[in-house]
Design goal:
Blueprint: E1 2-6, H1 10-22, E2 26-30, H2 33-42, E3 47-50, E4 53-54, E5 57-58, H3 59-68, E6 74-79, H4 84-92, E7 97-100, H5 105-121, E8 127-129, E9 132-135, E10 140-143, E11 146-147, H6 152-162, H7 171-179, H8 190-206, E12 210-215, E13 219-224
Parallel strand pairs: 1-2, 1-3, 3-6, 6-7
Antiparallel strand pairs: 4-5, 8-9, 9-10, 10-11, 12-13
Helix pairs in contact: 6-7, 6-8
Length: 227
């Protein structure tokens, strides 16, 4: 899952990024209004941590823009301005949660997990497709009740597709979702092909009744196997 941190204070931004990266999330960051706007216009995120007071503009303006675009990215406002007006404004504009500074990292991680569960699995703790069950909280994957041992990126790819069953995902979009900003540094996508190949093999060996299909000229999609 990919998270965008929009926070102008360098030490806090780096601390949050380090904490969330350690939890297995793909993390990107923006330090001001302009760079944040560029990122939210160009990319989708599973969760956005949004400061209200930013150099160059208001985080609430970014939230309004995000919702006017019809985007459903989960948003948690993180702000030192712990006033009722800010909370109400943010939540009425579509924020999923509000966390006042200062906060403990453990609470932030718990809030992120909570909005991701609500946003992607309708409140359920697991995501199910066919005989495959994925638990985002524990990062466990089972096929017909048996554990499947996936490497981190294999898991991230499977999660991305299980959140979008039967949707065609372009390889560039997939790379950006799973590898974050580092995907832009590559001039080819052999690393994507290799991870897809390994994930396909593991699902097949485990007896999964879903599969990752190549859609020529477009990308991949996760769908039920044809009987």
């Amino acid at each position: 899952m990919k998270i965008l941190i929009i926070e102008d204070e360098p030490s806090l931004r780096e601390l949050i990024a380090r904490e969330l990266s350690g939890e297995g999330y793909v993390v990107e960051a923006a330090a001001d209004f302009i760079s944040a706007e560029t990122k939210i216009v160009g990319y989708n995120y599973d969760c956005i941590l949004l400061d209200v007071m930013l150099p160059g503009g208001s985080g609430l303006t970014l939230l309004d823009k995000l919702r006017s675009m019809g985007r459903g990215d989960n948003v948690i406002i993180i702000s030192a301005r712990d006033s009722v007006d800010d909370r109400v404004a943010g939540l009425e504009m579509g924020a999923d949660d509000y966390l006042a500074k200062p906060f403990h990292m453990a609470e932030l991680v718990a809030r992120v997990r909570s909005v991701l569960r609500r946003g992607r699995s309708g409140g359920s703790l697991t995501i199910e497709l066919g005989n495959v069950v994925l638990d985002p909280a524990s990062r466990r994957v089972t096929v017909a009740g048996a554990m499947v041992d996936l490497l981190k990126k294999e898991y991230d790819i499977l999660l991305h597709f299980m959140q979008r069953p039967d949707h065609i995902v372009d390889k560039v979009v997939l790379a950006e979702a799973v590898w974050g900003d580092y995907a832009d540094e590559s001039d080819n996508f052999h690393f994507v092909y290799a991870q897809i190949k390994n994930l396909r093999r593991k699902l097949e060996d485990a007896g999964a009744d879903i599969e990752l299909r190549s859609v020529y000229g477009f990308g991949y999609k996760l769908t039920h196997k044809e009987r």
